[in-house]
Design brief:
Blueprint (H helix, E strand, L loop, with lengths): L25 H11 L3 H8 E4 L4 E4 L1 E4 L3 E4 L17 H5 L7 H13 L12
Antiparallel strand pairs: 1-2, 3-4
Helix pairs in contact: 1-2
Length: 125
């Protein structure tokens, strides 16, 4: 039985979407291509990039007010995934446990700031 989730993604500014390396497997790429009705070569070129000397395929990023950059498919207003049904496996399984460390941190910060909407700034610079 999977661990019961002790976090609510809808109350988070999507920290996991800011990870530099959101891996895209061959299966993920095929899912993305189907979602956008593209061939896999075009989907790979538009939505991903190669890192670590070409060994790893990851999602492309765009500017983000909270984290510097985040996955290009993160809606910057709603903080929700715009390709939820086609998202990569790593996103589907995140965080892999019943708890999310960032969500615990965020809740603690919101309590100490006495602001239920507080989002700490993590822009890279």
């Amino acid at each position: 039985m999977p661990a019961r989730r002790q976090f609510d993604c809808s109350n988070c500014p999507a920290y996991c979407c800011s990870y530099d390396h959101i891996e895209v497997t061959d299966r993920d790429l095929a899912r993305l291509a189907r979602h956008f009705e593209l061939d896999e070569t075009t989907a790979e070129r538009r939505f991903t990039k190669r890192v670590e000397g070409g060994k790893l395929r990851v999602m492309r990023h765009e500017s983000d007010e909270h984290f510097g950059t985040a996955c290009r498919f993160l809606d910057r207003e709603t903080r929700q995934c715009t390709i939820y049904e086609a998202r990569p496996r790593i996103c589907r399984s995140y965080p892999g446990t019943g708890r999310c460390g960032f969500y615990d941190f965020l809740c603690s910060e919101r309590r100490s700031q006495e602001d239920p909407d507080y989002v700490p700034s993590f822009t890279r610079g």
